[in-house]
């Protein structure tokens, strides 16, 4: 739990002494994904960011159609493979072959199992929130969905996905670099939000009649 240290002067803001017990790299999984999100491999992280930016530019700014882009990529790939195969035969070299990793049944099975587990866990979390067991979390989810709906009216879905990718790809590295400053602001914001919720709970939420929640069998 974070500790808050108050100075003797009441006008001085509280100072946060929050420290993580586990490194951020371990909290993000500790694998290649964590290395990419924390920019430990700068070339790979920059390449993914550049690729996502190019895709967003092609579809959103240049108004490139997905089917047209897919056909152009297929044509280019077929031409490269055709030239490579014929040149390899003339120079007594091996023609290009599809890597076994792409067609690996084990890789597809692991991906499907991982996706199923995460999807099941996500649906379970959404069900718990929608049941109203934690009213604060329920109201926060409603507010976040409303904010996302408002933002969705202002920009396209692709731009919204790109913005989400940009946040996921950059915010963990920025947080690791400016951890103390972010924790200090987070503690202050949490105190203000807790005070606001107590006022809202005492004036409005306690007056709303709520029946007992039936447990699902």
From TrEMBL:
Q: Which parts of the sequence belong to the Reticulon domain?
A: 33-217
Q: Which GO terms describe its biological process?
A: response to bacterium
What name does the UniProt record give this protein? Answer: Reticulon-like protein
Tell me the compartments it is located in.
Endoplasmic reticulum membrane
> Does Endoplasmic reticulum appear among the keywords?
yes
Could you tell me which residues belong to the region Disordered?
A: 1-20
Q: PROSITE patterns, alphabetically?
A: RETICULON (PS50845)
Annotated membrane topology is:
Multi-pass membrane protein
Tell whether Transmembrane helix is among the UniProt keywords.
Answer: yes
Q: Which UniProt keywords apply?
A: Endoplasmic reticulum, Membrane, Transmembrane, Transmembrane helix
Q: Which segments cross the bilayer?
A: 43-59, 65-84, 137-165
Which segments of the protein form a coiled coil according to its record?
none
Q: One GO term of the cellular component aspect?
A: endoplasmic reticulum membrane
Chief location of this protein within or outside the cell:
endoplasmic reticulum
